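User: Quick one: structure for sequence A, then sequence B.

Assistant: Sequence A:
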Amino acid sequence: MLGKKLVTAQKRGETRALCLGLGMVACSMMMYFFIGITIVPFYTKSVWTTETVCKVLKASIKDKVFCPNSEGSEDEEIFPYPCLQVWVNLTASGQEVMLYQTEDTLERNPKCSYVPDKLENSKEVKARIETIASNFKKYQTFPCYYDPGGTQTSVILSRLYPSKGLLFAFLWPTLMFTGGCLIIVLVKISQYVSVLSAWQ
């Protein structure tokens, strides 16, 4: 009687462990799919892939420009902010090009090097842009990214999805997938040992 209870408890434990392993594998596959349709396209679409050194030539704040508060907004002139323009000397080619914060900045407003993320107090936005401009004037040389193919003459300060960030995004689903597969393998080995012991 006690042996039957132990066997039943063992089978229940194996079933639960097997379900856990399969669930971890399924969740990791869903995470792979999500990363593949969101982050990977932006990473492969970016042409600013090579890192070099940029030297500031000019950093000036122009008159205010307008930016829509949200995508698809009908009123496109509701978010005025000072337009910061930063021109740098690209060490790789010696060209004078315009610097943008990220790839998204160029798409949102190609006239400005920095675009505020959301609608905020106008004084805070102005103070932030002035601080950024003073930092560029203070730190004349810094790393930046350019397009080695030459399709884009501008450069960006940082990539939205760098290689390290992409690897970090794939790290967690990989660990979950490995853990799930390991649990399944251990359960199968336990079942095989149990069957072999019973047969002997």
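Sequence B:
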Amino acid sequence: SSTMSFSEAEVQSARGAWEKIYVDAEDNGTTVLVRMFTEHPDTKSYFTHFKGMDSAEEMKQSEQVRGHGKKVFSAINNMVQHLDNSEAFLGIVTPLGKKHATQLKIDPKNFRIICDIILQLMEEKFGGDCKASFEKVTNEICTHLNNIYKEEGW
């Protein structure tokens, strides 16, 4: 469904959890991408300029990887600011989903992978409660992205 059901308490705790990791958006965003590329090497194929990079160290130093990591975190940050407003939330998720489905042709399973790595990093850095507070957000993001993909004929 297109309406989200976050209680005020859930919104607050999700924002609190996200703020902790978003403080270092570029570094944490880079860590998430490098993990994804290392643990799921097929995901690198979408990024022509990362293809030749095999070492995690090399990826961490790459301006492109850092730039995209920051971009991913900024997009999620925008979504987190609108958890209490379905229309605004969808206004961010929809164009993002459409672009990834139609122009970039990214397999939607990669959104789940990236969300799981973000949750993993939250747990490592800030504990299980932090992760638990944010899990519903990642499910919501992935559900909406998958819906957009279906509408685009995936």
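The domain at 8-152 is CATH 1.10.490.10 (Globin-like). The first helix runs from residue 8 to 22.

User: Thanks, that's what I needed.
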